[in-house]
Design goal:
This protein has 12 helices and 12 strands. The protein starts with a helix and ends with a helix. It is globular.
């Protein structure tokens, strides 16, 4: 019964206070808020919760049990860190300075996974090197594959030959970011029930931050026209779909795809036909060929950071990452 109450408490914010409209993911705020009586009910039903000033709760994290949390990539790490409210007990496995596609698994990753209580990652389709590593552990943490969450909306690569190929860049949709945060809050509340109210409060603040960011981004992106830019690597579909802004096309459909002379001819014609002035590349996957294409066509080249390498010090690293992405796109497409 206690677990049910805690779960309801955590997700009252996720399912009652806020929802996304169907047309483009507009975040809507429900007029109802979490009442004081709800907090008192949860407290009375869980004897392990102690009366501690809110500022002390947020700073100390779990009172009776320190959570140990590992996340595969930086966007997930930033969300988990925000929800848990504790920097010291969160561990990031893959540096945001490198592409998750190029990552070489390390012994230090195994050592980290041995000491944590829960591990969050996107999915086997993105970080497939974790599958064998996790299977080798004598004592496994709770493993949460976020792409399999019932709250996360998946899309498929429409620009590839196999349209059923799932796109795992799920964090680039603000709608999915809230779903990920909710999934993290639910799992942490189950594993570390004494801090369920902390996770609930932090989830509420995360949603408020997303709402504010979303409104600001939509104003900025109103200046960006669809088909005014070309994308180097096929990784921004969630972002494009959510904000209803489409690129003119993609240069490389697959990771590490070598551009042939025929590909380069196609790209040059695409840029010329659509009068493209902006090429969007990835900060973690800079391609010399793409740099040359931009130079030959006198187009701006902006390298967007979809892993949040520049935002580790931000209070909400996820919203900072998305805001920077938008700012760079606006700057690149502004003639």
């Amino acid at each position: 019964m206690i677990k049910v109450i805690l779960r309801i408490g955590v997700f009252s914010i996720f399912f009652i206070n806020y929802s996304f409209a169907q047309d483009g993911g507009q975040i809507q705020k429900n007029s109802e808020s979490v009442s004081q009586s709800e907090t008192e009910t949860a407290t009375n039903n869980d004897a392990t919760l102690k009366e501690t000033p809110k500022k002390d709760i947020v700073l100390s994290g779990v009172l009776n049990q320190i959570p140990q949390i590992a996340s595969s990539i930086n966007p997930i790490y930033q969300i988990a860190k925000f929800i848990s409210g504790d920097n010291k007990s969160n561990f990031l496995l893959i540096s945001p300075k490198v592409s998750e596609h190029n990552y070489q698994f390390k012994v230090s990753n195994i050592n980290t996974l041995k000491k944590v209580g829960v591990f969050f990652y996107v999915g086997d389709g993105l970080e497939n090197y974790f599958v064998k590593a996790l299977a080798s552990l004598e004592k496994q943490p709770k493993i949460v594959q976020l792409s399999k969450s019932k709250y996360v909306k998946l899309i498929h690569f429409q620009s590839r030959a196999n349209e059923n190929d799932t796109d795992y860049h799920i964090w680039l949709s603000p709608e999915n970011a809230i779903a990920i945060a909710g999934e993290i809050a639910e799992n942490l509340s189950t594993i570390y029930p004494p801090s369920a109210l902390i996770y609930k409060k932090n989830l509420q603040q995360f949603i408020l931050d997303i709402k504010k960011m979303d409104q600001e981004n939509k104003v900025k992106l109103s200046k960006v026209k669809s088909k005014s830019f070309v994308i180097d690597h096929d990784s921004l579909a969630y972002f494009e779909n959510y904000y209803n802004i489409k690129s003119a096309g993609v240069m490389r459909y697959y990771h590490r795809q070598d551009l042939t002379s025929k590909d380069i001819e196609r790209i040059n014609n695409l840029i010329k036909d659509n009068k493209i002035s902006c090429i969007v590349g990835g900060a973690q996957e800079r391609s010399n060929v793409v740099v040359q294409i931009a130079s030959n066509n006198k187009a701006k080249l902006v390298l967007v950071d979809i892993m949040g390498d520049e935002n580790n010090g931000a209070q909400n690293g996820y919203t900072k990452m998305m805001s920077n992405l938008v700012d760079n796109l606006v700057k690149c497409t502004n003639k």
